[in-house]
Amino acid sequence: MKKLMIDLDETICEGGYLEAVNEYLHTDYKYTDIPHYYVEDVMDEEEKEKFLDYFYQNVNIYKKVDIIPKALEVIEELSKYYEIYIVTAFVDKRRVKESSIMAKYKYEWILENMPYIDPKKIVLTGSKDIIMCEIKIDDKVANLKGYGETKLLLNQLHNEAYSMEELEKYHIRRVFDWEQIRSILIKESE
Ligand SMILES: [Mg+2]
Q: Is the pTM of this model over 0.85?
């Protein structure tokens, strides 16, 4: 069985972080308003610092996330064909100690929502580039530049600026939804 790495945030679930920012700022930003990878980049530096302190003390975004359509059922189906690892980064260099709580939140959410994933294959890390899986799915281009035979970039606003030529340099293929991921990877497993 080939190994398949799947990212968590903005690949399987999304929205919780934006909601936390909106609650804190009393705003109503939509994803379409924010073309940055880091949602909090809508704030100035001073405000961002205060937000980060508040965030790590008070918010579990995984209580509020939306599941990206079909992600969970497609992953369950793919688990018959691939050895699946959910690989998610939790280290925030700006709050090294405080961000440890994110490992707990992420682990608990995966256990609860993806009971078909072996808990030993939940990888909480700061370095996705060391992951040697043949197949990778992520929404962040940097996480797909290294090792891998098949590397799928799930389309998100923050990665739309990457051209096809740029992605091809790293053998990355852009995909638009989990139905498409399903058909590519089931075909490839045959
Ligand atoms: Mg992600």
A: yes
